[in-house]
Write a structure and sequence with these properties.
Layout: H1 7-32, H2 47-55, E1 62-64, H3 70-76, H4 80-87, H5 121-134, E2 141-146, H6 153-164, E3 169-175, E4 178-179, E5 182-183, E6 204-208, H7 212-227, E7 233-238, H8 256-263, H9 267-277, H10 283-306
Parallel strand pairs: 1-2, 2-3, 3-7, 6-7
Antiparallel strand pairs: 4-5
Helix pairs in contact: 1-2, 1-3, 1-9, 1-10, 2-3, 2-7, 4-10, 5-6
Length: 341
Amino acid sequence: MGQHFIEGQRRQFYREMLRIRIFEDRIFELFEAGRVPGTVHQSQGQEAIAVGVCAVLRADDVITSTHRSHGHAIARGLPLREIAAELYGKAAGCCRGKGGSMHLGDLRRGMLPAIAIVAGSIPIAAGLALSQKMLGSDRVTVCFFGDGAVGEGAFHEGVNLAAVWRLPVVFVCENNQYAASTPYSLTAPVPHVALRAAAYGIPALTVDGMDVEAVASAVGEALGRARSGEGPTLVECETFRFCGHSRSDRNKYRSEEEERYWRARDPIVLQQRRLREAGLLTEEDDAKIIAQVRAEMEEAITFAEAAEYPPPEALWSDVFVPGPRGAPDFWPGEAVGEVQP
């Protein structure tokens, strides 16, 4: 946990968290106004985890995500234009308008399209890591999931197999205290998700998920172990979502005291204060960064709203079609792009 970050990195942490917060705030406004279709699951308050993790990854590493994927996609470097277009269901989106809010991703940029099934990406992340081990690569897979996923069989199966085969994967639990509206304390006999790792004989730790530098340091060490053949690590990041679980959730199940406690630990405010105290961020610098981020976000939304919807025939592209008995299977149309396994 002793990793040192230089001035530029610390400022970039702040900027990236701001990009996620401002983008998600604006997207929710547009969703409420009926301009963004489908549904949205936001992550305001959890930005430090996405940014801290992705900051220490290599370009050839891969992340898996969840139904709450906006922050992961932004932190992993997917262009805001493509993310916004995907939310609007447009062909210019990162998944050609076929995934929407819960399935953002681009494997060419190191993010498997997100899997909305709770815990669904955990065994898949183990499979991705297994492929890298079999290829003799030192690439690492990072798997994001929430505290609700820990109660699913897929969590135990995926982590157990990764431990048995010493796979190069880092499991990152974003423990935001609630699985939808159910508090973690009512679903687990142990106070920390990290304690579950003892059953699989792998290292684990609980880190302050509101502190971007603490997250980056912890995950950086876990990545080092994975690359050197030491197998998986479970990193539990304790955090809190400032928004509801999804579009219809108005947070009536959380106390005012709890809300005040966590909002006082806003990860963006914490990093802003650090930079100010270290003399790395003036008020003028701060205002300039915020203005630039807002302009980038509005440009992305303008692009998305003007973009074209996929044509009807796109229904048959990027789809695997089994052939008749004895005939080869095939991909009709153009695939989303070839990537290295």
